Amino acid sequence: QSVVTQPPSASGTPGQRVTISCSGSTSNIGNGYVYWYQHLPGTAPKLLIYRNNQRPSGVPDRFSGSKSGTSASLAISGLRSEDEGDYYCAAWDVSLSGRIFGTGTKVTVL
Amino acid sequence: QLQLQESGPGLLKPSETLSLTCSVSGGSISSSSHYWAWVRQPPGKGLEWIGSIYYSGTTYYTPSLKSRVTIFVDTSKNQFSLKLNSVTAADTALYYCQGSYYDSTQAIDSWGQGSLVIVSS
Fold it and tell me: Cα angle at B37 between A10 and A47, to 5 degrees?
């Protein structure tokens, strides 16, 4: 079964840069676009990055995405306390004919 | 601005059918450019994509639920719905509906606030 793996946790102090990795396969990340979502407690998920590195209107440029081969990453620069929450990558998986979310990463601001 | 709102029963018994509806405002459910989906989050776990439907009626479902799930659109009410048969405790989760549109210059990605469904005898 296809799995997209993220580190369970990441942390940093205010102002620091944090990077979250997303590792997949040729059937998902390696075959299409990657999307990144921020999921804060008690709220609906919010799209941060689409099509690997594009930011929707209103998303600060502190958030950036990249993709190489079967892996992708999300960088948060100038970390703020309000960035604390869960982050998920997502991609379409051609072998499943469905979307797959990464395992999720909890970001803690120390 | 696209807005979505889930509705449906919050408590089910094992073997019953889960039925949730997502009401869409600020956009047409019949739009050829949008993608409509259901996502769930079991307690203490990550996001799980359930399935999606396009304006053409084409549906896609996650393999683990495919035998039990149906997603369909009601254009007269500007809604789309989720049905999940034969629920068990493992289907207890916060269920979200999602509406999306992406192109090279913009992204529209809206979610409902979530609907908690508990399966318990």
Answer: 35
CB distance B19 to B95 below 8 Å: no
Contact at CB, B114 and A100, closer than 8 angstroms: no
| Nearest Cα to Cα of residue B46 among A86, A99, A97, A49 | A86
* Pairwise CB contact (< 8 Å): B109 & A50: yes
Q: How many whole angstroms separate alpha carbon B17 and alpha carbon A18?
A: 43
Give the whole-angstrom CA distance, residue B79 versus residue B76.
8
Q: Residues B115, B20: contact at Cβ < 8 Å? A: yes
For A9-30, the pLDDT digits (tens) are 999 999 999 999 999 999 999 9
pLDDT in tens, B102-116: 888 889 999 999 999
Phi-psi region of B26 (alpha: psi -120 to 50; beta: other; left: phi over 0): left
Nearest-CB residue to B47 (from A51, A57, A101): A101
Check residue A72 and give its pLDDT.
98
Find the mean pLDDT for residues B28-56. 94
